[in-house]
Design a protein that fits this description.
By secondary structure, the chain is an all-alpha fold. Helix content is about 65%, strand content about 0%. The protein has 6 helices and no strands. Helix 2 crosses helix 4.
């Protein structure tokens, strides 16, 4: 996963919705520290974390983590997304 685009998208969407990190933490049931680490690009977030953040933001998961060309995504990532989705 591209940490940079996820980080930028999270910051943009959070500010667009007028949410602080603390408020997003409450709405998305993710710790403030996790949000801080994602925004600072210190970690690559799990799919479940991204799903919780998208619920907290009230947006679709693909707005937070777009897959530009699914045919070019690695096979391992596709399986990982499938397993997390199930």
């Amino acid at each position: 996963m591209d940490k940079h685009s996820i980080s930028k998208n999270l910051i943009y969407l959070r500010q667009l919705k007028g949410l602080t990190q603390e408020r997003l933490s409450e709405k998305g049931t993710v710790t403030v520290r996790t949000i801080q680490r994602i925004e600072k690009e210190q970690v690559s977030p799990q799919l479940e974390t991204l799903r919780l953040l998208s619920v907290g933001l009230g947006v679709e998961l693909r707005e937070l983590h777009p897959i530009e060309n699914p045919a070019n995504e690695s096979l391992q990532l596709k399986w990982l997304l499938l397993m997390h989705g199930i």
